[in-house]
Automatic annotation (TrEMBL):
Gene Ontology molecular function: any one: actin monomer binding
Subunit note: Occurs in many kinds of cells as a complex with monomeric actin in a 1:1 ratio.
Predominant subcellular localization, coarse grouping: cytoplasm
Gene3D superfamilies documented for this protein: Dynein light chain 2a, cytoplasmic
Protein purpose: Binds to actin and affects the structure of the cytoskeleton. At high concentrations, profilin prevents the polymerization of actin, whereas it enhances it at low concentrations.
InterPro entries linked to this entry: PFN, PFN_euk, PFN_sf, Profilin_CS
Alphabetic keyword roster: Actin-binding, Cytoplasm, Cytoskeleton
Record GO biological process: mitotic actomyosin contractile ring assembly; positive regulation of formin-nucleated actin cable assembly
SMART domains, sorted: PROF (SM00392)
Transmembrane segments: none
Full protein name: Profilin
Compartment annotation: Cytoplasm, Cytoskeleton
Family named by the database record: Belongs to the profilin family.
Length: 126
């Protein structure tokens, strides 16, 4: 399966409206759906946030110029919320999944879908 198919499948769930897969270092975009393409400073901010979330905690999480309130940040997952929308970022062995869910979708529904894909990728050594 191509990387593009993974992001397209996330969109196909109806719970995610934008998705991208970046290299673990955040230095290259592997696939994107729904128009999600982060400026280099935003993906690097996310990549560094997995190692040290203090920057995200102090300035918030930024995705496509929108500031999201940080809900969770650890070495695997970063979650953010802005009004009724949110972002779910999950790091695997070789990738960073960055997703956005629209208003009307419960955070737990979106989180479960993205975390399951991350578990699968980790299971196949990605």
């Amino acid at each position: 399966m191509s990387w593009q198919a993974y992001t397209d499948n996330l969109i196909g769930t109806g719970k995610i409206d934008k998705a991208a897969i970046y290299s673990r270092a955040g230095d290259s975009l592997w696939a994107a759906s729904g128009g999600l393409n982060l400026p280099s400073n935003e993906i690097l901010e996310i990549a560094q946030g997995f190692e040290n979330p203090s920057g995200l905690q102090s300035t918030g999480l930024h995705v496509q110029g929108q500031k999201f309130m940080l809900i969770r940040a650890d070495d695997r997952s970063i979650y953010g919320r802005h009004e009724a929308e949110g972002v779910v970022c999950v790091r695997t062995k070789q990738t960073i999944l960055v997703t956005h869910y629209p208003s009307g979708v419960q955070a737990g529904e979106a989180t479960k879908i993205v975390e399951q894909l991350a578990d699968y990728l980790i299971g196949v050594s990605y």
